[in-house]
């Protein structure tokens, strides 16, 4: 039985560990065996500390045996996103400039997960500096989709999503500015949750008031995401936007009478027919659950200008000094984004701030009329891994590495919780995620809707290329 502990979800593993039916060492060994079997082909975990993980597991077993109280993630293995600083472990951001960077501290989300009893395995792959929703870089290479190794795993939390989907870890951390939790979750058939900004505070940070980017949880089930969020969430006095807590993950709720809006194109975005062919029948689940379901879209007409302006400005502030010193070390798309940011002046920032206020009010008006919004997570199914991004969607040309992500980053501008939950597979066997969005700060409702959808729709079949008992070699 212990050989296949990697197949268990986090909630059931946690219960088994607390009942001492299995040891933390057995759980870690099972996942290390799984990593050895599939990671060479998927390339999701890019730094691995097997001996450190086994030592930590032995200490966790001794702690439980002593009768001491243990944290909610006791004995669960996790590899952290390679943009999240991890004390004493290489954290590269996927950049050759930081290929040997070893932080002296844990970022807040890593610290909270470790204090809750998780076992650190290593780090998961990211695009260069987390820029773009396809995970590749010159330090570690491309992360591949467990459902089809020729396809992208998404990004920027692509390594995390691929590691989850192929059974290398039961929980994962990630971050999301324009879809970096949601897009890879959609591509890899797992669950990725962008919480309300402030639900998971960030520290240290040079932008303590920033609400564009937030850390959040990923897992294979909604219940596992809720478990991890209960650890990651909660106030921190160093974060001026942190929300009060704690967050209690009670997923049971009667959804009858809720008003649900379905927006298949979020106001006219191009969406691949393969995506809509999965999502259109899937959303009828909410009618079966007793909700009213109508087509409607919030006014997102200014989301493009606001997001692109603020993102470019942030990139210029963060990277221009290194870019000036080492321009050859930046991928062309990121270099372009930095140059775009340099062209943003005070007038553009002021107009973006005012437009963001109008978007916020439009979103609140929308959620006065509807309890939730349903939309595509990604406008395309997973695309070939040799592409940086899809250049065409439903006959519409995509000019940059950002264009195809609009269905995620337009939602970012609402300041609302948004989750990607698996909705089904294309005829070619590629996962498609449904995006569920609710009013800002209603994170629990978002999870409850996702859990009900997951239970009614059923979970996806596991990736055939990576879920065989002995790994990829038998497929």
From TrEMBL:
| Gene3D superfamilies tied to this protein | Amidase signature (AS) domain
Q: Which PANTHER family does the entry mention?
A: INDOLEACETAMIDE HYDROLASE, TRANSAMIDASE
Question: What range(s) does the Amidase domain occupy?
Answer: 26-446
Signal peptide range: none
Task: Spell out the InterPro entries in the cross-references.
Answer: Amidase, Amidase_CS, Amidase_dom, AS_sf
Concerning NCBIfam families, the annotation shows: PRK07486.1 (NF005686)
- Know the name of this protein? Amidase
Q: Coiled-coil ranges per the record?
A: none
């Amino acid at each position: 039985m212990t050989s296949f502990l990697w197949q268990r979800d986090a909630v059931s593993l946690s219960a088994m560990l607390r009942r001492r039916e299995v040891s933390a060492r057995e759980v870690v060994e099972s996942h290390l065996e799984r990593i050895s079997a599939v990671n060479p082909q998927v390339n999701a975990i890019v730094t691995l500390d097997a001996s450190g993980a086994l030592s930590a597991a032995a200490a966790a077993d001794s702690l439980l045996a002593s009768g001491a109280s243990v944290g909610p993630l006791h004995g669960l293995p996790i590899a952290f996103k390679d943009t999240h600083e991890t004390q004493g472990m290489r954290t590269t951001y996927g950049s050759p400039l930081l290929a040997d960077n070893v932080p002296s501290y844990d970022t807040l989300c890593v610290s909270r997960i470790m204090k809750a009893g998780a076992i650190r395995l290593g780090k998961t792959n990211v695009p260069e500096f987390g820029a773009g929703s396809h995970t590749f870089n010159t330090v570690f290479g491309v992360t591949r989709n467990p459902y089809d190794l020729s396809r992208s795993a998404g990004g920027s939390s692509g390594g995390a999503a691929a590691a989850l989907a192929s059974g290398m870890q039961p929980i994962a951390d990630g971050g999301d500015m324009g879809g970096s939790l949601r897009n890879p979750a959609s591509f890899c058939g797992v669950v990725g949750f962008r919480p309300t900004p402030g639900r998971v505070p960030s520290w240290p940070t040079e932008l303590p008031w920033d609400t564009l980017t937030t850390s959040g949880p990923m897992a294979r089930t909604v219940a596992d995401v809720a478990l991890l969020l209960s650890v990651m969430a909660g106030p921190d006095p160093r974060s001026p936007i942190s929300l009060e807590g704690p967050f209690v993950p009670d997923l049971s709720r009667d959804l009858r009478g809720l008003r649900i809006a379905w927006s298949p194109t979020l106001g006219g975005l191009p969406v691949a027919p393969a995506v809509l062919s999965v999502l259109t029948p899937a959303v009828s689940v909410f009618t079966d659950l007793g909700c009213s379901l109508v087509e409607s879209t919030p006014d997102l007409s200014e989301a493009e200008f606001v997001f692109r302006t603020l993102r470019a400005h942030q990139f210029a502030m963060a990277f221009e000094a290194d870019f000036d010193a080492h321009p050859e070390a930046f991928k062309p798309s990121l270099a372009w984004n930095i140059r775009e940011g340099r062209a943003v002046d005070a007038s553009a920032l002021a107009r973006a701030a005012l437009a963001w206020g109008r978007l916020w009010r439009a979103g609140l008006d929308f959620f006065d009329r509807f309890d939730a919004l349903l939309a595509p997570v990604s406008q395309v199914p997973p695309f070939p891994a040799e592409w940086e991004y899809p250049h065409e969607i439903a006959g519409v040309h995509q000019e940059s590495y950002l264009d195809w992500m609009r269905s995620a980053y337009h939602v970012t501008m609402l300041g609302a919780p948004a989750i990607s939950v698996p909705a089904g597979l294309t005829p070619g066997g590629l996962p498609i995620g449904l995006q569920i969005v609710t009013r800002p700060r209603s994170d629990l409702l978002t999870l409850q809707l996702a859990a009900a959808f997951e239970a009614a729709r059923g979970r996806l079949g596991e990736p055939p290329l990576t879920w065989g008992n002995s790994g990829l070699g038998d497929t």
